[in-house]
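To whoever picks this up:

The parser on our side crashed when reading a file containing two proteins. I've narrowed it down to the boundary between the first structure block and the second sequence. Both blocks are reproduced below exactly, byte for byte. First block:
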Amino acid sequence: MKYNGPKARKCRRQGMNLYGSDKYDKILQRKPSSPGKGPRAQQGRLSEYGKQLLEKQKARDMYGLSERQFRSLYALATKTTGKTGDVLRQLLERRLDNAVYRSGFAMTRLQARQLVGHGLFLVDGTRVTIPSFRVKPGQVITVRPTVKQSPLFAGIQAAHQKYNPPSWLKVDGGGMRIEVAALPSADDAERAVDVRQIIEFYSRT
């Protein structure tokens, strides 16, 4: 098991599983300290800017976004009516790959992004291959009929029986169908992300 691979180092630095895969939970159990020195010592050295940067990187890694994509979402959030932090959370959650992951039809966001990129999902009957596609209330996401019986989705369906999706998504695990019932609220977003720190980071750059 690679404790010093790029993703493993990021998980250890943040002290949490950023990617959802079980292997990172195992790495954190065996190597809970941040790479280099203990997490307390490192955290004590961080300036406010450093903490804000770390929080921004955490959100980027969790959702699998490049800096350009993340900055674009922040810019859009600042121009949209409502609290910037709440709007940013909502924009992150409304990505198609995230909706697929949050519905339990993928084991990780990375897997969800790959499944969407390969065109395995339809939105209102139309094949969509763009992971960043922004879903909206009333839309229905389904697995392409030709791949419903694949071994991949058979395993996901079995795991889905114990999964509770967020309230903004109505999920039919047996029918491999997701209905976007509402816009995600701040409570529906990833609780591990402190958007206040992210807003403060971008407001000073």
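<<boundary where parser fails>>
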Amino acid sequence: MTKTIKVLSTNISIEKGTVKKPVDVIELCGIGVEGDAHSGTWHRQVSMLGIESFNKFSKQAGREIKYGEFAENITTEGIELFKTAPLDRFANKDIELEVTQIGKECHGDSCAIFREVGNCVMPKEGIFVRVLRGGSLKEGDVLEFKPNIFKTLIITLSDRASKGEYEDRSGPKVKELVTAFFEMNRFHHEIDTMIIPDDEQQLEKIVKEAKDSYDFVFTTGGTGIGPRDITVDVVQPLLDKEIPGIMDMIRMKYGMKKPNALISRSVAGVMGQTMIFTLPGSVRAVNEYMTEITQVLRHLVLMLHSIDAH
């Protein structure tokens, strides 16, 4: 079933940190809402807040709170906006908005909204979006919710596992850990897995095709120095940008206790809009690598999509 939100109010302020006033219509453009203090070439161009959040905070304040009092540009009804995630979108035939941030820092007593209302819901349940397609927006308009789906490909490289001589355990471990990451961040996701032999041509073909189809590629196996360890040799030349710090840190951290970990040649990097991580083949190593990678993965996603949410 398609989820939609209905616009209850459109609001503007000419100064930051103040309540916004309802207007009949707002014009959305490449920098946000025309004439609004928060418009600009940044990721928090437009603020949105659902009536679902309004109702909770109205009870706490002990009075009815008017649209715009929490400094939201767009007041909506339909879904709890704070349960969306970065890169989700709201759109109709004319307008397309992309979620960039959930909540923000509250400035407390220095904020006019906090002083006037006694609390502020935006840091907890407001969201921020940027304008991908602009146009006029007014009360009564409807926007369709379009969740972004992160697509992941997990490739296990093993001559023996590809022949069915033993059960692949490292691939399923990667899937388990990356799934936990997606669920923790409320990212919608799809995961494909495959097992292939240590074959250079086959791996190269798959990785090149993944550039246009997947957001993440994880390989497991083939990162050592044996004659059949070809994963790094295939993947590294395909990267547009390498991210050496991740793998260097992992090698040093675990290599201090287990020197064999220093032998891994694992690499991480970006190919177009696809992030690629080559992991060793053991379950223990997969667990160690993924523990560190998932700590920076959300930030990598935001950076790759030009969301400066430091």
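After patching the parser it read the second block fine. The mean pLDDT is 91. The longest helix spans residues 283-304.
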